[in-house]
Amino acid sequence: MDTSDALIIGGGHNGLVCAAYLAAAGLSVTVLEGRSEVGGAAVTEEFHPGFRNSTASYTVSLLNPQVIADLRLHQHGLRVVERPYSNFLPLPDGRAFRLGGEEGAAQLARVAPRDAQRLTEYHAMLERVVAVLRELMARTPPNLSDRFVLADWLASWKVARELRRLDMRGRRDLLDLFTKSAGEMLDHWFDYEPLKAALGWDSVVGNFASPWTPGSAYVLLHHVFGEVNGKQGVWGHAIGGMGAITQAMAAECRARGVAIHTDAPVAQVRVQTGRAIGVVLQDGREFGARCVISNVNPKLLYQRLVPREAQPDELRERIARYRCGSGTFRMNVALSELPDFTAAPGTALASHHQSGILVAPSLAYMERAYFDAKSREHNPGWAREPIVELVISSTLDDSLAPPGRHVASLFCQHVNPEVEGGWDAHRDTVAKLMIDTVDRVAPNFARSVLGYRALSPLDLEREFGLIGGDIFHGALGADQLFSARPLLGQGNYRGALAGLYLCGSGTHPGGGVTGLPGRNAAREVLRDLGRRTR
User: Do residues 70 and 151 share a domain?
Assistant: First the structure.
């Protein structure tokens, strides 16, 4: 039986980050990945002959700069290019709205001068809050348990000290962002509906909710933490797709001596006298370790991998209520030519082709999409007029498609995680709907499709372990954040058993390709083992 100091279940990006930091401290580390390649949902794969794209996760901003530096990702070939501006919104009247960049700023000043002024104030408000929260994202939350621990008291004091950096106005803004809806916040700040839609899109990304659902303002906030090449709030593309990030991480892991096993799905965590001591693979192989670190959804960990008899009844009840489920339907599409938008005619490459193209002209449109999918009144469980973000990654990276051809990522909301008859029966019907939705604003789109791969919420769960298709490994609600992520008593990356740790997106600070859960968890493992990183 192979034995190591640390055994990591799941070779997604957070598992690789955790492994790299542990190995830097001299630990022997083993990573077990069930798929044939590491990377989890951040992988680049061929989906149609000659066409490659980021299969699930598809855009870069939240990846932590310290993680990039510590893991030497640039030295391993990672290169990220930024979009020319944030969003391009084709509108029902045949016009278009651009958010970001000089072109977008000039347009907003013409059509909504008051909102143009308020947008500067809005971004300043977000940045004041984000500047404090960025510090907290890299910290271990205080573990609110039933016993006094000095380290947790000190952590609580450090959190309070960070929050003291905000004046009263900032604290009120922070409270609003954690408790109110994105729609309420944006209605307060702005009047121009396309602007509110462009900003409010972030509140429904991977969030099966209306933009007016209380708490959706935090989901919006979660997406503005990032930066690209030192520019805050910018989104970009990794040359070679998202797999370029995780392959660079894997290269650094191997350079530090990490043993990485693919095609190695874990069947069960081995428990002895209340302590996690290793795992058993589905093929019967066993691996032992001083500590077991889970990089999978907490629901998957406790409901499928940790033996039921090793868990208290209260834990099983709580984890059953841990909220997972996304309104996401993900597609990769091979195109013969670029979309020819009614609002911006032409198939020659233009700046709007390199931006996030959003088919959702208003917050009201987004709300209708949610309730249509949730109610199932008119169909088995998807919006008849869905929200689609189209990112044509080949316009920024010509390595992904043959010359003159293109690949597009379609990130679609809202679909119900559970549909009548099951997702296998409806996948292609919904895929056609998504293509037709883009075709309404770019009439050449449907006929330019050479092939596609569609991933329903069920496909995302089966292939990447995203329970209910949840891209965040758990809803980003106030009851599932910070010390309560995934549950109170496990917010400090320590699981329900001795020797069991959590390092995935189901821990603080949550989803997205950040690397921070992996980095933070490694720090706590090393603290328990009395080791320091080099």
Answer: no
